[in-house]
Amino acid sequence: MTNSMNSHFFAYMARMKLINRWPLMRNTMTENVQEHSLQVAMIAHALGVIRNEYFAGNCQPDSIATLAIFHDASEVLTGDLPNPVKYFNPDIAKEYKKIEKIAEQKLVAMLPERLQKYYQPLVCSDEHNADDYKLVKAADILSAYFKTVEEVNAGNDEFKLAQQRLRETLSEFDCPEAERFLEIFEAGFSLSLDAITK
User: What is the domain-level CATH number for residue 120?
Assistant: First the structure.
């Protein structure tokens, strides 16, 4: 393979594990973007299955899970900007969205031209299927919510307000698949290993 064929796309993707989430919060256990993306993908897949089984949907859970794997890919270039900063005011939020879009395009441009068409719909937010991405976004919120549950259960009061805010966000998100996921799976996240092993 010649140097002109070399791509650094997956070298960047491998660095997702180096970007810690919740950087302004005291954490009992750090969480990185790669770990978060895996959990979001698993939950998003389940939301697709729930849509098909409980709400007469006709989506492709595998495709939704793949979209979720890459939902934070641009953060290997931008970092994970804390929400209080990112959403401090509408102007900052708007400008950060522009930065994210530039980062997405830069990542796709790292790929060989013949592969770009496969990854552009996964990495570039402008290309996402709106119905599928709603489930990814719901899974993203659920993952963050479960992180706060784990932290609060570990005695970390730093996450109490975030837990409350994220639960409210889920209620307002109008995603019946997410509500059904919570009905079925939420209780286990507050139990010890011994309790879920019984």
Answer: 1.10.3210.10
